[in-house]
Structure formats: structure tokens, C-alpha cells
Amino acid sequence: MNTDTQTTTPVILAKDLVKTYGNVHALKGMNLRVDSGEIVAFLGRNGAGKSTTIDIILGLQQADSGSVEVFGMSAKEAIRRGLIGVVLQSGSLPGDYSVAEILKLFSRVYKRTQSIDPLVEETHLRHLLGRKIRKLSGGEQQRVRLAMALIPDPELIILDEPTAGMDVTMRKEFWDLMSTQASKGKTILFATHYLAEAQDYAQRTVIVNAGRVSADAPTEEIRRAHSSTRLAFSIPSSSLEGVRAGLAARAAELGTVWELSDIAEVDSPDSAPASLSEEDLAADQWLRVEFHTTFSDEAARHIVAIPQACEFEVVFSSLEDVFAELTQ
Fold first, then answer.
1. 187 CB contacts (<8 Å, ≥6 apart)?
2. What mean pLDDT is predicted for residues 116-144?
């Protein structure tokens, strides 16, 4: 591993970045800090400022104001030292070169490189070494870009839509490799439209909206803090008003409001709650009811204690739900 840095220095430190294109304000005071060993998802809708921020971090664009340091130095110097590996969605590769030729050529750029042969295995390029770049699919070209990014054994890996063009199998192989890199202590910052990737692989998620950070926290924490849980259960119709009143009372104790958001008639359940006889089970009309809450633990305890309730279901909001809420 490249060790040409101090571990106490932030890997990325971007402060108050402002960038405009004519009348378009792409960044309006963007702040981002990434520390050593973090795996950070950088999320936002198209035009939110993700790619502009990444370009400025990499020195591909200059901010109108604000500052950026990578390992306490300029991006240009960090790249020169082989500290940064980059996989961008765009950017053409020389089509007349073979995969083997482009990897050998790129390895000559750096003073220190890791062996290409293990990289070829890790990125599943062995069977493509003799093929011209122009003959590769979009997903295969992304794997070539990944191998190129890893050649200097970088401490920071920046990925902008890295799995674009990859099928499901390729994406799994890609993230298996990223997990391996993370286990080596690499720092990873990635932007993606596949929000399931952020939920599954990012320790921390940064959500960008309109040129600013709108949320920044551990991924699971951000999902829980900005989302609600859907709870559903079945009850006899004769119990509806009592259940509604009980929910309202418990919610009031917690300083919130629980209202049944959906009520639908359903068939009687396969097994009766212990408090009901088979005759009662068959005689009453059954309802499927649900409500949403951020107090998922308290709500779950409350509904399972309802004597007439059964067929419980708890569905947690996904990171995609949170993303939609914060960027609408």
C-alpha cells in the first residue's frame, strides 16, 4: 500500500465551494470532509452538483471560490504521487489499443505500481487482454478503467457512476472488489444512481441537493432519521374504533400522531388471535390497516399487544425513499 500520507490529515477536505456556469449556480457553498478508511456514498439528482464537486476535487475544474485539499495537498500533487485512483463514467479510452496494451502504457505513468497480473484477475479482464478497447461493451470498459485506477495502489478511490453499463453480475463482481479494497484500508468516495449500492456498501452517505449538502451521516442513521416505518396488521372491524383510539393515545404520549393511512377489507386470517374464538373469527368482517411512524419500536410493541390483532408486517423505508424525500 502507498504510505506517502499522514493518517491524521483528512483524505478530502473541501470548504465552501462555489461554482457557477453563467446564470447556473452549480455549487452554493459545498462542504465535504472524508477521513481515512471511510466508504462514502455521494448522492444527488442530476444537476445537484455531484460531478462538479468531484471534478473540482480532482483538479479537473476550478471553483470560483472555496478550497480543496486531498491528503493535505493539491489534487495535482496527490495524483502525481499515485495517491488517487479514479473511475469516471465519461472519458474515452483509445479504441485501437488492446486491454493489455492500455494497462501496460498506463503503468508507466507512475513511479510505483502494483503488479498488473493480480489486477487482471481481480477485475476479470484475463479473457479480454487481447481485445481492442473499441470492441468492449460499456461495462467491460468500466472494468478496464477500474484496473487502470488501481495500478498505482492508491489510498483514495473516487468513483463517479462506476457501474454504469454493467449487468447485475458485473456489478456484484465490482462491489466484491471494492469490499476487498476497503478491507485493505482504502478510502472510497462514490457517486451512483443505484441507491441500493449506497445502502449496501456505504458506511456514510452524503446527499447533495441544489449545490449544497442536505444530509450527511452514517448510512443507517440517515435512513432512520429521515424516514418512516410502515406497520400493517389485521383486525376485526368491530375493533377498529378501539384500535384507533389506542393508537392516538399512545402516540400522544410520545408527542407524535399516528393515523391509520389505509384500511381495506380482507378475508379472515388463517389462524385466530388467542383472544378470539373460531366463531368470532368467522362472524366478523376483517380489515387490513396500516400507518406510518418514525417511532417504529414503540409502535411495534403497541400493535403486537392489541389482543385482536394478527398478521403483523413491518416495512422499513429504504435509502431510496429518504433520497426522494430530501431531494424533491
1. 11, 34, 35, 36, 37, 38, 39, 155, 156, 157
2. 93
> 209 and 153, same structural domain?
yes
pTM of the model: 0.74
Q: Given strand 156-160, what is the order of strands in its sheet?
A: 84-87, 156-160, 187-191, 39-43, 204-209, 212-218
d(CA 101, CA 117): 13
Query: Is residue 208 one of the residues assigned to a domain?
Result: yes
> Which residues is 236 bridged to in the sheet?
286
Reported as half-sphere exposure (CB side, CA atoms, 13 A), residue 121 has a value of 3
DSSP string, 72-112: TB-HHHHHHTT-EEEE-S-----TTSBHHHHHHHHHTSSSS
pLDDT tens-digit profile of 90-100?
Answer: 667 899 999 99
Q: What is the pLDDT of residues 255-267, one digit of tens each?
A: 888 888 889 988 8
Q: What is the pLDDT of residues 173-207, one digit of tens each?
A: 999 999 999 999 999 999 988 888 988 999 999 99
Across 219-247, b (16+ Cβ under 10 Å) vs e yields beebbbebbbbbbbbbbbeebbeebbebb
Q: How many domains does the chain have?
A: 2
DSSP annotation string for 40-80: EEEE--TTSSHHHHHHHHTTSS--SEEEEEETTB-HHHHHH
Structural domain for 47, as ranges: 12-225
Q: Domain holding 283: CATH number? A: 3.30.70
Q: What's the confidence (pLDDT) of residue 278? A: 67
At residue 260, the pLDDT reads 85
What digits encode the pLDDT tens for the residues 16-69? Answer: 999 999 999 999 999 999 999 999 999 998 889 999 999 999 999 999 999 999
- Is 167 within 8 Å of 139 (Cβ atoms)? yes
Q: Which amino acid is at 270?
A: D
Q: What is the CATH number of the domain that holds 65?
A: 3.40.50.300
**Domain identity same for 258 and 183:** no
Average pLDDT of the residues of the chain: 88
